[in-house]
Amino acid sequence: MTKKTTKRLSGRFDYAALDIDAQSRTQLEAAAAGIQALGRRSTDQAFELGDLLEQASELVEPGTFERWVSQRCDISSKTARNYRAVARNLSRYRERAVELAVSPTVLFHLASAPEEKVEAALAHAEEHDGIRVSEVKALLADGADATSKELNGVELADIGGLSGLRAMIDLKTKTGIAAFVENAAALAAAVAKVLESKPEGKRLQKKGLIPLLEPLARAAKRSLGNVLLLDAPGDIDARKLSDNELPIGSRWFRVFDMLDDMGDREAWPEARELEVWLDLTVLPLLQWATCRTKQPDWPLEAPVASKSADAVMRSGLEALGGVVRVEPPSLDPADDVGAALEDYQPPAFLARKAPAADEDGSNVLPFNSTEARSGLRKPRALMRKPAEASAD
Predict the structure, then answer these.
(1) How confident is the model at residue 191 (pLDDT cuts 50, 70, 90)?
(2) Model pLDDT, residue 262
(3) Which of 38, 65, 89 delimits the end of a domain?
(4) What is the Cα–Cα distance from 378 to 24, expressed in whole angstroms?
(5) Which residues, 6 or more positions from 213, have their beta carbon under 8 angstroms from its beta carbon?
(6) Predicted pLDDT of residue 283
(7) Among residues 290, 323, 342, which one ends one of the domains?
(8) Residue 199, φ and ψ in degrees, nearest 5
(9) What's the Rg (C-alpha) of the chain?
(10) Residue 337 belongs to a domain
(11) How many C-beta atoms surround the C-beta of residue 336 within 10 A?
């Protein structure tokens, strides 16, 4: 790219209008110069370009980044997403990919593929001295009809039968997942930046966060909805997932519901609870949803059900040595006939050592003490009824 072209592209992007500070502008210009010098041809250059785009994306807001890369670097937002995905998701395979001279187009397909598919593609390249775009598509198609493997979305729309329909659905799913991962990652990065930059001892203010987080959440919800929804309504922001589309209360339903709340400022918690919500719910759910490992751990703790009053009482009695049934005292004086108070033994958990007379000056008679004390009388209800004289 000539100096004249570079100057022309630089003039097309107005840094001042978007309130980009001088330091960020200097860094963005350096990244633009590096991007324009690469040429985007070799495997190693594809990774370098992705790294530069990733660095530049951290200097501006997501919406602004797309405008910058398009106007300043003459790269479409879709192409930029592909290179960023290569740098972000395939960095561990960089040496092998460079050694095998895997083309950037093949890398684009592998950037959104699961690990086992990436390994299979690289193994194929090692065995056959390279891998072509058609071969990686066939590898990722998982048995899709061979006639549609090398066709694009426009051509797929003309293929009849179930094989054509399946191929279109597969293509829609792949592009939808890639879009969701990008949108969710942008939202997670924005939330993390908000939490890191919050002054200590200060509360987060909704007024400043709503213009930043609400549009990102809506974009992430829209891309996730396009993958999960059975039908594709024009405005999915206004609708909820039904139980037929995703079980209510399931983990992916929780992710969709969280994005729905984030995209509606009225559903945000109060300012005093906002930081906890973003830190302990929103960010963990976004990381779980975009994690590339198999079966990632669920980040939210399961709610603990409160014990009923009966369960609490039973657990307390069990701690005392078992459930003890205590019969209530009889109110019938006739039941006292032949019963000696001295023979009464209280339950073990009610018994206590009788204090010495000089240690306790109270007027309380212990349950297990039958010794008479001076000045104390048994209640009338507890005194034995004298036996009546026999008529004989």
Answers:
(1) very high
(2) 92
(3) 89
(4) 91
(5) 187, 190, 191, 194, 262
(6) 93
(7) 290
(8) -60, 140
(9) 37
(10) no
(11) 16
Structure tokens belonging to residue 162: 């179930």
Residue with token string 């792949």: 174
Stated pTM of the model:
0.42
pLDDT at 318: 53
| Domain, as residue range, for 80 | 1-89
Number of domains in the chain: 2
**Rounded to whole angstroms, how far apart are CA atoms 342 and 369?**
9
- pLDDT tens for each residue of 290-334: 887 778 889 887 544 445 555 555 555 555 555 445 555 555 555
User: Does residue 250 lie within any of the structural domains?
Assistant: yes
82 and 192 share one domain: no
Do 79 and 188 belong to one domain?
Answer: no
Amino acid (one-letter) located at 347:
P
**209-218 as b/e, with b when 16 or more CB fall inside 10 Å?**
beebbbebbb
pLDDT in tens, 72-84: 888 888 888 899 9
Whether 295 is covered by a domain: the verdict is no
Q: What is the 3-state secondary structure (H, E, C) of the chain?
A: CCHHHHHHHHHCCCCHHHCCCHHHHHHHHHHHHHHHHHCCCCHHHHHHHHHHHHHHHCCCCHHHHHHHHHHHHCCCHHHHHHHHHHHHHCHHHHHHHHHHCCCHHHHHHHHCCCHHHHHHHHHHHHHHCCCCHHHHHHHHHCCCCHHHCCCCHHHHCCCCHHHHHHHHHHHHHHHHHHHHHHHHHHHHHHHHHHHHHCCCCCCCCHHHHHHHHHHHHHHHHHHHHHHHCCCCCCCHHHCCCCCCCCCCCCHHHHHHHHHHHHCCHHHCCCHHHHHHHHHHHHHHHHHHHHCCCCCCCCCCCCCCCCCCHHHHHHHHHHHCCCCCCCCCCCCCHHHHCCCCHHHCCCCCCCCCCCCCCCCCCCCCCCCCCCCCCCCCCCCHHHCCCCCCCCCC
- Flag whether 195 is in a domain: yes
- On whether both 85 and 179 belong to a single domain, the answer is no
